[in-house]
Amino acid sequence: MNEKEQKSLAAQLGRCSGINRRAQIPFSMHLASLKRCPQICLPPTQDHLRWKVHLMDEDVEDRFSPSELIFLSPDSDNILTTLDSSKVYVIGGLVDCSTKKMQSFNRAAAIGATTARLPLREHVPNVNNGRLPLTLPAVFEMLLHVH
Question: Which of 47, 62, 84, 96 is catalytic?
């Protein structure tokens, strides 16, 4: 990610935290891989230290078993229709202007985790085969609505 994308990630993480704080039934939110995240990816004022979020230096697969993880990927054949409270849903933090094909899918496959995609193809016809570049807050809110 370039510097602009990193700053965008910091802003989007802040919006996700705010959305979660106002939710009737908030998620248990984890920020993972912080050891690899440049400081610019986090709010410059250290606001993230006050968020109701679990901060993890390690990667998500170092904290949770692959059987608990579901990586959201537009490349998955599995359609996400319901949420399972025993699972951890991984929303990638790649913030860019285009969808990077197979990124989340390949990461999940490498560790033996499950993947699923949002049902965009089924509900948003004629949109680039269901591959929309969605912001983190947009995906987060969609998940909260079915939570």
Answer: 96
